[in-house]
Write a structure and sequence with these properties.
By secondary structure, the protein is α+β, with helices and mostly antiparallel strands. Helices cover about 15% and strands about 45% of the residues. The protein has 6 helices and 14 strands. It has helices at about 15, 25-30, 95-105, 140-145, 215-220, 230-235; strands spanning about 5-10, 25, 35-40, 45-50, 55-60, 65, 70-75, 75-80, 85-90, 110-130, 145-165, 175-180, 185-205, 205-210. The strands form 3 sheets. Strands 6-5-4-3-8-1-14 form a 7-stranded mixed beta sheet. A hairpin with a 2-residue loop joins strand 4 (about 45-50) and strand 5. The structure holds zinc ion (ZN).
Length: about 240
């Protein structure tokens, strides 16, 4: 049986900060560790959502593409889904209100968990980025190359992870959420939404399996002491 309490993280968010964007793990490998998750592609090639075992890319033009097993990632988070319903959305909910409500009903600030909101969004705003070419820029300069997308009356899933502040750098401390529409018409890294119809569910992940790209010479030789990891993550994520 698959472990449903483990977050499998490949790479670290910190390695993206100085521009170590090379894809070093195939999706076919990643999917052995989870059927649900988020990530980015080789060269920071779009925003990924893995849903029901199927990996999707929301590319820099906003198109949603199904990915094959040979697609590689520099960073991803996955787990095996076993969500439990938390509540129905009954009044207008935004990302801030969602975070506030979840943290208000659960004492989960010091554990990882995954959260999922399936609903119809009156408004939703996401972003994604085109694949970068070498020499890769750093993450902060990529923040200015993001393309934003917006939708109205879109049904889909907001999903992602909460990581304790202690792990900021390894992951994004706090919430890191992506979106994918049911009809695959849009998606991306979540920026904003408003919904009054949906269901919120969550899954506590009290174990972290952190895998590092030790076969990547560039990563192994990189000196992270000069990178302002926390500052860059705050600015870019
Ligand atoms: Zn993201």
């Amino acid at each position: 049986m698959n472990k449903t309490n483990t977050l499998y993280q490949y790479g670290t968010l910190a390695l993206l900060v100085p521009g170590l964007f090379k894809g070093t793990l195939k999706l076919s490998e990643l999917l052995k560790h989870g059927d649900t998750g988020i990530g980015t592609g080789d060269g920071l090639d779009g925003e990924l959502v893995i849903k029901d075992g199927i990996p999707y890319q929301i590319d820099g033009h906003g198109s949603v593409n199904k990915l094959d097993g040979d697609f590689t990632v520099p960073f991803a988070d996955v787990h095996f889904a076993d969500y439990k319903k938390l509540f129905d959305v009954e009044s207008t909910m935004t990302p801030d209100k969602l975070e506030e409500k979840v943290m208000g009903i659960k004492d989960w600030q010091n554990t990882f968990f995954s959260i999922k909101l399936h609903g119809t969004f009156d408004e939703i705003k996401t972003r994604s980025i085109n694949r970068q070419s070498k020499p890769y820029p750093n993450l902060v300069s990529c923040a200015h190359k993001q393309h934003e997308f917006s939708g109205e009356n879109v049904t889909g899933t907001v999903m992602g992870y909460y990581s304790p502040q202690l792990f900021n750098g390894s992951a994004v401390g706090g919430f890191h959420l992506h979106f994918i529409a049911d009809d695959l018409s849009m998606g991306g890294h979540l920026l904003d939404f408003s919904t009054s119809k949906g269901e919120v569910s969550a899954q506590v992940l009290d174990q972290l399996e952190q895998k590092l790209p030790v076969d990547d010479e560039e990563f192994m030789k990189h000196d992270f002491s000069k990178d302002d990891i926390a500052g860059a993550i705050g600015e870019a994520e």
